[in-house]
């Protein structure tokens, strides 16, 4: 899984610097370049910087989508034997451009790491940003096996899960799973602008969760949304149509329409897979009331081990001043029933298993 440096990282924002931090952990020689002097200096202080006079073996391009092609052409003149990998969020137009230059197309592959944060810049970078995230690889029509394998090895170093999609398919999928969520979060955030700040003090976690993406970098997202407009527009039209149906249903006090709107949303969300792209598990939950004393959770896990049941997840709730807390364990249905009966037989306050 080793990659040979030097690797030249062009663009020292969140993604570029996060890539560099992880590569630094692997002792890879790095050259960092950014047109933003402040970003480049901070990234260099975090990571160090190799000599600009050395030819790069790999060029990682982490710039706004609209300048990737011009950067790649310029770098190809300087490093014609390097592998060129960009990490921008839209692909089809870029790949068509690269394919017009056959020598570059052989040395080029496009990657999209499905990771990010609402806050941008090298100050937000993390070496583990890509851990367990999708690493989507899109080839040109001439990408060499060597360059594709290099892109895969870098993804593996990042701890990511490797997927391969054509540029056109990538942009269609990303419009659904990334661009629409950003649009809907932004429109919700914008709707708060006319509200009394005192009223917003009442906001709970739901509003904060749904509007989280609205805090993203407008300059970055302007490029992504405008660059993928062809794929976004039909999907956005569908969303608008669904909202129009809901609006009409509310106006007519048609509860059936409102219920169907909510039901279809729930059904759609339930199609999302579980962790790391695995099939979503249908968990059963066992609530257990325990005394607020040291070692309680450890004793529960000892009981689980004693009867060989596997806990998939857990949550803990404890109100200040209360002498007891609530532990909720997520298990398969069979394990949940087995564990609840076992705990009750041992004197635990384990309640009937339930679906959420």
From TrEMBL:
Keywords: Amino-acid biosynthesis, Aromatic amino acid biosynthesis, NAD, Oxidoreductase, Tyrosine biosynthesis
Residue span(s) of domain ACT: 285-356
Pathway info: Amino-acid biosynthesis; L-tyrosine biosynthesis; (4-hydroxyphenyl)pyruvate from prephenate (NAD(+) route): step 1/1
Signal peptide: none
InterPro entries: 6-PGluconate_DH-like_C_sf, ACT-like_dom_sf, ACT_dom, NAD(P)-bd_dom_sf, PDH_C, PDH_N, Preph/Arog_dehydrog, Prephen_DH
Gene Ontology molecular-function annotations: NAD+ binding; prephenate dehydrogenase (NAD+) activity; prephenate dehydrogenase (NADP+) activity
Cross-referenced Pfam families: PDH_C, PDH_N
EC number: 1.3.1.12
Domain Prephenate/arogenate dehydrogenase positions: 5-280
Single Gene Ontology BP annotation: tyrosine biosynthetic process
PROSITE patterns per UniProt: ACT, PDH_ADH
Catalytic activity from the UniProt record: prephenate + NAD(+) = 3-(4-hydroxyphenyl)pyruvate + CO2 + NADH
Protein name, UniProt field: Prephenate dehydrogenase
């Amino acid at each position: 899984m080793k990659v040979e440096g030097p690797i030249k990282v062009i663009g020292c924002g969140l993604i570029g610097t996060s890539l560099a931090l992880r590569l630094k952990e692997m002792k890879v020689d790095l050259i960092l370049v950014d047109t933003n002097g402040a970003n480049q200096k901070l990234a260099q202080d975090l990571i160090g910087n190799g000599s600009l006079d050395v030819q790069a073996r790999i060029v990682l391009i982490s710039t706004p989508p609209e300048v990737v092609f011009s950067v790649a052409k310029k770098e190809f003149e300087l490093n014609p034997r390097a592998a060129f990998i960009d990490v921008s969020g839209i692909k089809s137009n870029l790949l068509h451009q690269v394919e017009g230059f056959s020598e570059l197309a052989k040395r080029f592959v496009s990657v999209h790491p499905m990771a990010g944060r609402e806050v941008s810049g090298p100050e937000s970078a993390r070496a583990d940003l890509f851990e367990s995230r999708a690493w989507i690889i899109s080839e040109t029509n001439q990408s060499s096996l060597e360059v594709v394998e290099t892109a895969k090895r870098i993804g593996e170093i990042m701890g990511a899960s490797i997927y391969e999609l054509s540029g056109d398919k990538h942009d269609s999928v990303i419009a659904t799973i990334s661009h629409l969520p950003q649009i809907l979060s932004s429109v919700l955030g914008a709707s708060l602008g006319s509200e009394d700040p005192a009223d917003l003090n009442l906001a709970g976690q739901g509003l904060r969760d749904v509007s989280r993406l609205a805090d993203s970098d407008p300059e970055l997202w302007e490029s992504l949304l405008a660059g993928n407009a062809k794929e976004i527009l039909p999907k956005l039209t569908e969303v608008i149509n669904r909202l129009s149906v809901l609006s009409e249903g509310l106006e007519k006090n048609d509860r059936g329409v409102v219920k169907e709107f909510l039901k279809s949303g729930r059904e759609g969300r339930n199609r999302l897979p579980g962790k790391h792209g695995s099939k979503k598990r249908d968990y059963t939950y066992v609530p257990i009331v325990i005394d607020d004393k040291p070692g309680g959770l450890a004793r529960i896990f000892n009981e689980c081990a004693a009867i060989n049941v596997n806990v998939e997840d857990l949550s803990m709730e404890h109100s200040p001043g209360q002498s007891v807390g609530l532990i909720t364990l997520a298990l398969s249905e069979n394990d949940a029933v087995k564990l609840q009966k076992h705990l009750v037989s041992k004197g635990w306050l384990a309640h009937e298993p339930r679906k959420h």
